[in-house]
Write the structure tokens for this entry.
Amino acid sequence: MENTDMKTIQWFPGHMAKTRRAISANLKLVDAVVEIIDARTPMSSRNPEIDSLTSSKPRIVLLNKCDLADSKVTSAWVNYFKRENVTALAVDCKSGKGLNKLMPVLKATVLKNLMEKRQKSGMVGAPVRLMVLGIPNVGKSSLINRLAGSKRTKVEDRPGVTRTKQWVKLQDNTELLDMPGVLWPKFEDQSTAIKLAFTGAISDDILDIETLAMKLLSFLAENYPQSLKERYKIEYDESDSGYVLLEKVGKKRGMVISGGEINTERAAVTVLDEFRSGKLGRITLEFPSVSGE
């Protein structure tokens, strides 16, 4: 990824510290945890604190927004989690793709011991209670609304919408506890923060949009060159910097201001919006290691 200077990204509002405490306090109320991550950034969109915060409960991981991600890479990530003894499913919460597998897989694998115990003790009618966790803008509300069959929670394409915990009852005797999105106190690796910024998990208000778009264009040129060429009809070579690529996109789209200068800010907004909406094709920003480490 291009080494364009960019200010250090930090994003830890006070309500997120409160959410961490709420997770610990409410775990005793649920049978399992449903962790939602972004299929385009499976590692970067995993809060590293969730492992320790929820270690007392079984968990399933949903790779959401799989329709926006590279399908071959998503399959590789599912296999990666399997090697790590973590049950994972590729889903798209907005369309509902893959969600029909959620409860069957939960009951057959993740909650198998609990289901067997309840059956032996005659508690087959007891509800299954699940805590839904994930970073901001990863799709928690979309998941719950799709499962509930109605818009029970507020959904917006911006981080930090869900601020308080919400219980939602489903028709199949399942209860979901939706927790606010939670990031972590500090990004040790700025590449993680940048990938989250690409997908919109971090508010654009605290970022340099043009630098961010340059970094994204450099990544695309290296990893998905055909998608870049097909979307913007531009030609480039390996020596082109992110800035040059951004100028080429702006020029091709007619974003020229007085004096023939390219409106790179407008071009940057376009590139980020089109990536996030899937108009650039199915793209994954990080790949599992071959060894599974």
Observations:
- The radius of gyration is 21 Å.
- Residues 154-163 have pLDDT under 50 and may be disordered.
- Residues 209-223 form the longest helix (15 residues).
